[in-house]
Amino acid sequence: MKTVTEFPRKVVEFPDMGIVMPDGCRLSARVWMPEDAGNDPVPVILEHLPYRKRDGTIFRDQLTHPYFAGHGYASIRVDMRGNGDSEGLMDDEYSEQELQDACDVIAWAVAQPWCNGNVGMMGISWGGFNCLQVAAKQPPALKAVISLCSTVDRYADDIHYKGGCLLIENFGWASTMLSYSSRPPDPLIAGDNRWRDLWLTRLENQPFLLPLWLSHQHRDAYWKRGSICEDFSAVKAAVLSIGGWHDGYRNTISNLVSNIEAPVKGIVGPWIHKYPHYAGPQPAIGFLQEALRWWDRWLKGTETGVEDDPAYRAYVMDSVRPARWHPERPGRWVAEQQWPSPAIKTRTIELLPKGGRPAIVASPQTCGLAGGEYFPFTFGPELPGDQRPDDALSVCFDQPELTEAIDIVGAPEVEVRLSSDRPQANIAIRLCDVHPDGASELISYGVLNLTHRDSHEFPRALVPGETVSARVVLDQCAYRVPAGHRLRIAVSNAYWPMIWPSPEPVQLTLSAATLALPLRPPATGDEATFAEPEGAAPWATETVRAANSERHVDRDEKTGIVTLSIADDFGAVRDLDHGLVNGSIARETWTIHPDNPLSASGKTHWTQTLSRNGWSVRTETWAEMRSDAQNFIVSARIEAYEGEKIVFERNFEEKIPRALV
């Protein structure tokens, strides 16, 4: 990445600008703006997050926000209430209070003498979600949004549920937020005599969100609120949607470009859950330059040509050898002037011959261990590996060897007719690229809780032995399968630890299956180009402890229990400006017996540390989830330390009835 230190306008930074909400709660904001903005007012760009501007997102903030400020914007990075250096309490993600706070920050900004009255909002993940949700509320000054790695549907396409199946990430993310939000404000911001009171109040009111999320197992009003797919027309701001093929949020870009009535464009690269000017796998792109074109057009009225950009630009990845991490993905950029594209045609493939014998699907509960993380994050061993171990535990439909390359661009679908021997059953379908030597690379996958075959809101139990029809939609993808390779469609009724298992072992009888494959004429070269990545001067730090990620799968040959162990040490660094040292370590274990879905268990343990000179604090959080046939059983614990002295401890425990999950 090219570091830019000279900008058209000189930048000034305010590390803690207090923004007082109508109820008196003070939010802490880090603000960059042109030095002369008071005399020459500028538009505002807002990023509103719970992830701590002082020591959490500072790496990416430092690259991004000064860059925007140097090009004529006031860039505001706010800690949400109850997090980082802000006052108040947080009770859930995307709450009405959170969204109203963002609207109030926008109103505050446009009232400042350095703002010209126009606002853009941006973010990745949480910030990508809430900027779309705030746009749907239509605050008058909000003219444009850049949303990355986000969703339009909080139930069907987030970290909670997918295809009506319970995602393990539902538990994982609740554990993460318990740890993230348990940290105190920085005494240099909150004050030596105040930070501790704010911290203890925060800890006493800290929610463990898993029971809340588990209490809404169907697509009810809880999930509909904030899901902009309920009314795409509510979004009037211009939307640039960006995502990555190695991220969990692959479908949003297509959904937005297909449905938003306001000006909208989409870009999907080969990336994990990161901003694309520093993401991997390579190639990264000049995201900040692309963002400036968007901001300049919709916030300054400058003709930048963004209206004429293709509706959908996607990176078609070439076939590679399966690996848990790819530093780069060869391929090419394709461009579609409209989306859905008339150039993409559907090829229909019957997987089971008519009148032939049905296929019996009865996978061991360990099927899925090659699937990787839901949204890879660490530049480490989190991508899907060679699929052959999972293929061996699935029913596979191998297609003839390809005589010429094909480009799959879009969302494959599989229509099935099947019966189950149990009233609740899951199905997972993977589309794989099989190399001539048998190596199997994951292209896309989809899962469906078969009780949700007609509705996520009103599921119906299966009648054992009764044949039903269902449609499984796989994730959006863009992938070139070369000549000499084969397509494989792998079907299982377990996908651990991506989804929680059914309460009983299940056997599916598959009597018909039809694949609908979206094919685009193969591109001969790049149809779109981007500038090389740029960024402002990087965060100045000293490494105290190097980062490291590990992943192990172990099978106890005596008991048969299989355990996936994950350790992500994010390291510890010292900020060379204000001296704060922050570090974190996440540990996860997922255990299951191949024959017993009720043996499934997930455990997490997070450690967070903050220190400066003689001051230090630490939080330890633990969480566990298991189930019996009737209930999910969850527990968690927080311990908080000042130095080595424990100053707070709290336990959580709850049972939540299963509802066709």
Automatic annotation (TrEMBL):
GO terms for molecular function: dipeptidyl-peptidase activity. The keyword Hydrolase applies. Keywords: Hydrolase. Transmembrane segments: none annotated. It comes from the Bacteria. Residues 292-539 form the Xaa-Pro dipeptidyl-peptidase C-terminal domain. This is Peptidase S15. It comes from Rhizobium loti (Mesorhizobium loti).
